Amino acid sequence: MIQEHAPIYTVKEIALNIFQLSFLSPSISLGALPGQFVNVRVEDSAVPLLRRPFSISSVDGEIVSIIFNVIGLGTKLLSQKKPGETLDVLGPLGKGIFPFDDEEYRTALLIAGGLGVAAFPFLISRLPSSKEVVSFLGARSSSYVVRHGLKNVRIATDDGSEGFTGTVVELMKMFLKENPVDRPRIFSCGPMPMMRALAELSLEKNIPCYVALECEMACGIGLCQGCPVETVNAGKKYNLVCKDGPVFEIRNVKF
Question: Which class is 107-252 in CATH?
Answer without folding.
Answer: alpha beta
